[in-house]
C-alpha cells in the first residue's frame, strides 16, 4: 500500500514537472514574451523598448535557467546598479533587498507573481480555487442525487417506457456541451426579452425582470438562488447524464442477478427489491465514476465560469492563458495535475474498500 | 503681483479668440470649433460663450441628488505609472482622486480644474499657467507650482518605456528630458512654460488621460496602494479583471466641495470584452451603465431599458498602408486601392451608419483647422487598371484586422469593395493579443484611433516622420515642414491654409483609407445622470449622480 502510494505520488511529481516545463517553454516563446511586455508596459511599445523590458524584468536569460529559477533550484536573477542590487526575482517578490534570499521558487514555497492580476500567485489561486470549490460542491449536490435517481429508475426495468425516456434525457444532457447548454439556459431563463422571463414578469410571478441571473459575478460575495442556479445547472447537467448512464448499466446488471430473481420468486414487493437488495450493489460503480468525473467537470468549469463571469479557477486559467501570465499558468497546471491524480488515487483506494476482490499491489 | 497677474489673465482676451468670435458670428466656425479654440487659448468656457453672445449652458438641468452606489461595466487593467497609460480605462478608475490641470468637456471646451486660468503668448511659444489656490492633497500637503513643475518634468522623460506624454510635451523636451528653463516657477501658484517650438496643442494635451497630476512622492509604481491625490474619492479595492471600488473620502476637504462627488460609492465591474456578458449583467440588475456599446449591442441594451447617449467624435479607424512594405511602397498601388473604396458604403456596412463619412486624410470637420477638399472619386475600373499597370494583377493583397467586430466588419466592407473592383484580396483576422504585437508593422491593416481635439495633434502623433506611432511609415519632407509650421500658427484661418496643403499631401500620397468618423455610444439606466458618453471616453464619475 505504501509502495503504491509512493509510486503514485512519484508519478504525480514527474507529470507535474513535465507539464510545467512544457507550459513554461510555450509561454516563454519570444512572441509570447513580446505580448507580455506589451500588456504590461503599454500596447504601443517599440521593438527596442520591448527588448529592454524583457531584459529588465528578468525574462532575458536562457529558458532552462529561468525554469530552474521558478523551481527554486537555481538562484533568481538580479540586476545591479553601482554594485548594489536594485531589482531581482526575489527582491521583487519580497519587496525588500535584505529579506530576499538567493533562491525563491517552488521549493522555497514561492509560487511567483501574477502579471495579469498583480498579486501573489498562491493567495490568488487559493481564493479562486475556493470559489470553484463552492461551485463544484453545489454541482455535486445537484448532480449526484439527480444522476443516481435517474439511473436507478431507468435501470430497474430495462427496456421499459421509463427507461427509454430517462435514457434519452441522460444521453441528451451528456451530449450537450456546456457552451451550448449555458447559452440556452441564458436565453430561456435569464433574458427579459426572450424565453420565459417576460411571461413570468407579465403574470407577476417574479419580482425582478428575469427569473435567474445570466451573470454570476455577484455570487463572489453572496450566493443566491438567482445568481448561482444557472452556472450550477450548466455544469451539473453535463456530468449528470454520464453518471446516470453508468448507474443505469450497473443497475440493469444487478437486476438480472440470481438473488434478485430469488427475491422476486419469494414474493418480495418490487420497491423493496430495488431499495433493499439491488441499490447497494448497484452503487459501487457510480461512486468511482463520480470521482473520475471531477477532473472532467473542471473542463466544463472553464467554459461555464467564463460564460457567467464567475471568477473561479477555470476563469483564472482562461485569463492567465490569454494574457500569457506565465507563473499563474504554471501554478494552474500544477493544480490541474494534482486534482486529476488525487481523484484517481482516491477512486483507486475507494474501489479496494468497496470491492474486496481487487487488491493493490 | 499675484493679483495683477490674475486680473490680467481674466481681462486680456487673446487676439485670436476675438477673431474666432468674429468668425463664428460670420458663420465660418461652428460653436463647437469656436469653443475648443477659444478655451485652448485661455478663455474660460463662460467667457468664450460670452464672446459670441451666448449664455453658457446651465451646468445642471436638475438638482443633483447626493448619495447612492453606481455600478458600471468597465475593464479594469493592471495599473502602472500614469504617464505610460495606454487605455482610457487606466485613467478612468483613478479620476476620483487624481485630477488634471484641465478637463476636456463633452461640448469641446476645456474646463480648468487644478488651474484657474492660463494664457498663451501670441506665437504660442510661451504659456503662463495660473494654478488654483487653496487646493490640498489628501495627505494634507498644499498643492503648489513645484508639484506641477515636478509632473511636467516627469512627462518629459523620454527614457521611460512607453511614456507617451513625452511625445505630447515634445516642445518642452530637449536631449530626452525637460529642456533647461522649460518650466519657470514664478510664485507658489504661477508657472511659465517656455517652448522650443510653437505648440498650440500643449494645453489640450494636458487634458489627455495620461496627464494626471501626481504627488511628488509618487515613485512610479502603484497609484492604488498610495492614492495621494487632490480629488474627493479614494480607492477601496482594485482587482484587474474583476473590478474596482471607489468611495468618497470623508477625511479630505475637496477644493470644489459641493460641485460634484455626489455618489457615495462607485463600483466598476470588469465583465471582460464579450458584450453578451454585459447584457446578461444588465438584465440581472448588476450594472447601471456600460462603458461603451457598439453596433447591435446599442439596440439590445435599449430594448432591455438602457437608453443610449451619443458622443460625436473625431475617433476613427485607419485602414493604413505601411510604406516600408512591398507593394505598398508604390504610391500608385496605395492610391488605386483607395480609389476602389467608397467610404460611405464602408460606413453603412461596417458601422451601421453610426458616424460621418471621412476623406482619407485624418482631419475631422470638428477639428478647428479642418479645410474642405474636393470630394473623393471612387472608380473601381480605374483602380483595377492601375493595379494591373503596377504589375500586380495576380497579386493577392492581405488586409489584417483585430477580431473586434466593428473593426473586422469595416475591413470586410473595404476588402469587399476592392474585390468587387476585380483586385485579389484576402482578409485576416487576428486575436487582440497577437494583433497588438505588431500593429505598426503590418503591411496593410486597420487601427482604431481615438480622437484628439486638434487636427495637428493627430498629425504629430501618427504621420510625422519617425514618431513611434507612425504605423503608415509615412515620411514626407514637405509634410513635416508644413506640420511644424502649422504647430506654431495660433490663428486658425492661417493654420487652415497650411492644413489644407497637409490634407492634400495625405490624399496625394495615398496614406490611408480612412472611411468614417465614429460616433460613440453608451447605455445607462434611466436613473443615472451626467454619465453621457464622452468623445474621449472620459468617465468623470465625480460628476455622475443617481436619482
Which features characterize this protein?
heterodimer, A: 361 residues, mainly alpha, MetI-like fold, two-stranded antiparallel sheet, 15 helices, B: 547 residues, alpha+beta, Dipeptide-binding Protein, domain 1, Dipeptide-binding Protein, domain 3, 4-stranded mixed sheet, disordered N terminus
How would you portray this structure in words?
The complex is a heterodimer of chains A (361) and B (547). Chain A is mainly α. In chain A, 69% of the residues lie in helices and 4% in strands. Chain A folds into 2 domains: 2-121, no CATH class; 123-324, MetI-like fold (Orthogonal Bundle). Chain A has helices spanning 2-27, 30-41, 47-56, 63-71, 89-94, 121-156, 161-175, 178-189, 197-203, 225-255, 258-265, 270-282, 284-307, 313-322, 326-354, and strands at 78-81, 84-88, 113-114, 119-120. In chain A, helix 6 (121-156) packs antiparallel against helix 7 and helix 8 (178-189) crosses helix 13. Among the domains of chain B are: 2-57 and 99-205, Dipeptide-binding Protein, domain 1; 312-519, Dipeptide-binding Protein, domain 3. Helices cover 30% and strands 19% of the residues of chain B. Chain B has 18 helices and 21 strands. Chain B is globular and about 70 Å long. Residues 1-11 of chain B have low confidence and may be disordered. Classes of the chains: A mainly alpha (361), B alpha+beta (547). At the A-B interface, helix 2 and helix 3 of A face helix 9 of B.
